[in-house]
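Two quick folds needed for the group meeting slides. Do the first one here.
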Amino acid sequence: MNKSIPCVLMRAGTSRGPFFLREWLPEGDEARDQALIGAIGASDPLQLDGVGGGSTLNSKVAIVSRSSQPGCDIDYLFAQVGVGHQSVDTRPNCGNMLSGVAPFAIEQGLVSATEGTTNVRVYNVNTGSRIDVTVRTPGGRVTYEGEARIDGVAGTAAPILLNFLDAWGAVTGQVFPTGKRIDTIDGIEVTCIDAAMPLMIVRAADLGVTGREKPAALDANTSLLERLESLRLEAGRRMGLGDVSNSVIPKPVLVSMGESNDSITSRYFTPRKCHASHAVTGAIGVASAFALPGTVASGIGREPGSHSLVVLHPAGQIDVEVELKGNSDAATVERAALVRTARKIMQGELHLPEYVFSRPEATSGKPSTFPHKALTIIVPTRAGGGNDTMARIIAGKLGLLLGQEVLVDNRAGANGAIASEYVAGSAPDGHTLMFGYVGTHAMNPALQKLGYDPVEDFAPVGLVGSSSTLMVSHPDKGAPDLHTLIARLKGAPRCFSYASAGDGTPPHFAAELFQLSSGTSMSSSTFEGAAPAIADTVTGRSQVMFPSLFTAYPFIRAGQLRALAVAGPKRLETLPGVPTLAELGVAGVEVVQWYGLFAPAGTHISAIDRLNRALNAVLSDPEVIERFESHGARAEPGNADALRQRMLSDLARWRQVVAQAAIAPRESRQFALD
């Protein structure tokens, strides 16, 4: 693996970060993400070992390539890299980094410059939206020198015009993803809007502040931050984004009156810290909510046409030109444009640290002082799903008991095989652990040949917990009950689509068994993990899913999903009115999802015992038990052998199911992710 790669470091808008051509980075998302983690220095909160700046504003990456989209010149993938934890999130977008994409692409030869100015159509891979970018190119060369000034950046530079064409509803599918322009959460009116960036907008006065405070004052108001985060978590669920506790979207925004009818004051959070100025995509969202009627940010009534609006922020203002179509409640935003600047800071070779790609050499397995460094729990799914949420619940508590930091590292891909192979090949010293579950250690191995052995390559540490599987449907686009769903499927096969977290995962197995037992056929949408799959079901793009209760429960409580049946042997205490599939005449669909902690095979028994004792103490903590139960899961402390027996029993069971039901891996059908 090449440890030295080309890189261009740029200030783009009010952000800064490295820009890469896709071909400069390793092939495959997993290797790419590890390179970005090393480039930024994500493991360290100060990011001293990389080019990051110790904050989310300076831990951003732009990846650029020639576009495969009709009518577009280049593709732009934005990545938000973790600060103090090894993570890469490609779900959000960044308009500030976008302002550097066109100059970078021109200088790298992806787009030919024209005399005077050059227009570049950018396709944002994160959101599936298009942006027209105009760059000054006198003499056919990019210039960064000019008279444009943007608040939050010293000096002046050449103006870069960003014209957002179709960013409305790009992430969730709807401008107002909850179906309302105002929602009430815990007594507070909020507007959930997806306009260039999913936002949750709140009137500052409703939370007891003016909305004109400096960022430091807002950051010091811990009760305000806690209230905002509580509202944001619920807003994320209602917007179909799942559990957003470890995601940066939706972004919370406090708004208040501006200085005129054409301005609004905004305090933008990222999401747990007030932005020193303002995000570009956030300004588009705030201006859209300000221009449209019926939101918590709405200004005066406006006629169709172009309107020059101003978003006031702590470092000054962002001028946004918004074009409206229609009147009153039928009004929509057709486009929005604004000016940014960028500057190339340096171009050269970026040297990645050795630890990014190299796994530690295996040791003899002899006991040593344990633990003597930070531990990492590898999660085989993307952030936001049930596995990830459980892992993060236990990680902080586990670290306190072990006296070392416990990091959570999401390594999604290949239905858990990438994470499993990584841990199986790691040093057996107890510092690299696997948050395995029934999918990685029973179902997927039963379905197909993998690059790891769930029994031989792992040392069980202990069970974490379990959660029943539900059959859920979209309340409007699905079916009101199971019998109606079956009748419609038999009358029109494949008229419903089910969302799957990938081949060899519980939602896949449960859906296949249901179709076999009920004599029906559904189409499928396959995703890398439960979080994007359930988001697809919440929005109605898929109508049916078989998630764990842990994953589905928040959406059921919010009325965003309807529980049709329990895919298990008995009804649940949490949802006593929901019958089992067997009660409704569909037998043989019993899928219980369990989760466990594993170490690489060969890990010394002393380390396993220490980990098991600490894990059991965490799982006996009343706060952890309550958090598990609030999501419909059950904590299950026990010894390592209990996990081994559960794994062996389920592995044998699912191998038998695969053989008898003739379930086989399907060709991957990857749909758009969040």
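Then this one, please, same format:
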Amino acid sequence: MSEPSSPTPPSGGGRSGGAGSGDAGGGGAGRGHEPHPFIGGRAAALRDLAAWRAGAPGAPRVTLVTGSPGSGRTRLLTGFLMLCDPGYRERVDLARLDPAIVPPPLPAPAVPSAAGRTPAQVLWLLADHFGLGAARDTQVYEALDAGDGERAVVVVDVDQAGPVRAGHGPERMARELLVALGALGSVRLLADVPRAAAALISSALPPGTVRVIDLDAPEYADPAGLLLQAEAALDPASGASAQPFTVDAGARRELAGALAARAAAGGAGGSRLIVQLAVAGWLLAPEPAPSPQAHAPATLTDVLDLHAHRLGADPAVLRAMLAPLALAEGDGLPLHLWVPLASALAGRDMTAEIAEGMLLAGPFIRTADAETGAGTESGALIALAHPALGAAIRAELPDATAAHLGVATELLGRVPGQDWSLADPYVRDAIVGHALGAGQLPRLLTDPSLMAYADPVVLRAAVEEVAADEAAAGQLQDAARTYLWAAPLLTRTLADPPLRARVLAAAFDEDGLPAYAQALRDRPELAVPDAPPAVTPPPPLPRPQPMETQA
């Protein structure tokens, strides 16, 4: 795991923002000052963030940034952290900015991302960053709280926390890590969190400890910035392609005004993401030209519907194309699995629709491997343009449990001879999350070779989710419970499959499950040492049961 660091300016609109400096407004330039060079406005939020970093009188030690999906939380924090980074500050004429939005010249804070991680993983990222000599979690907290000075920590992407999508990653991150960090008097904590997590943390810490910056609240909303973002996104001077509705200043202003007004009318303070996706669709497929009256969306689902209608397509087809990406685990879906998983979910062959539908789906898809470095084993990865778009699509699924079951069944059919050593890495790891979402994970946990080959961080998190659910915990068989107590050894050491198999075989022996241990010893590639001779032969393993939707 790499150390946390301050983010650098993205080349495009980013996960939560628009084009150029179009996120201006909200008093960003007030009293003759220039707006923030990356986000423009958000002056009220930037003032509170600068006060948090400075430890100004009356500024709570813990600040939480929240808002509706697409409200621009990530873009705001990226812009703020630029001003915290000594290298970036040297490239900006700070004298032109409002002094109240500029943090003091202190060392850059630690910035771990919670995306895809457990609370323990983020905690140890902090331990590595600060060079703490610790062997246990409790020692990390003790070391963080030691010393005379404060440690500034910024935890981002809490809405994407957790190794499995069907788990309770954001809630666990808030409850197990952020509350604990916020309780340390020597830690100055800033986090980007969903609204439910903000409420959980605020209620768990003493009064006066927490300030919540809700970007949808009137005091932080930025309608002027939303309009300027739309105008900049459509302006060829900011990188938009030359189209009749972009080169004509009047048409551009009318279209931007309608888009910003509708995005704001969709609720709260207006969604930067709606503006970003709508403009992306108009520019990728400029014909027929968008109409201010007919093609300005108010919600994320409107974005999908209006784009499909403008291209003469059925919105249901677009949703069927995007559904497997909305359900994908990890950094994204391997490209070669897009068609089979879409077909499995739709109940029909989706080959033609996907092959001919790039203008339809293109605005809502990005290549993930180029950004994350992932996908080298499973091939090129594709993902949705923004996590909030995936949440909107999943919310519309008629039966999420059945959808997960359909994906899990398709992935299981792609394991050659049910030999997990031959399975695509994405298949053997993602099937864990989908089986959890389908309520069928216990049925997979009768195969010890899966326990040896699946990513132990992912499998441990999924099994812990089942164990924490009183109604589901009774379905876990003895082998799964053995895995649960042995899993910390696997995740701490980042063991490879042969070492995992040795640890698990010893654990199965210790728990009186010799058949499971022998199943691992019977695989030559794992090279598990023989156990001492048993008095009686081990009983046969139970046959895995087919997965089925629970009533």
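Slide caption for protein two: The radius of gyration is 25 Å.
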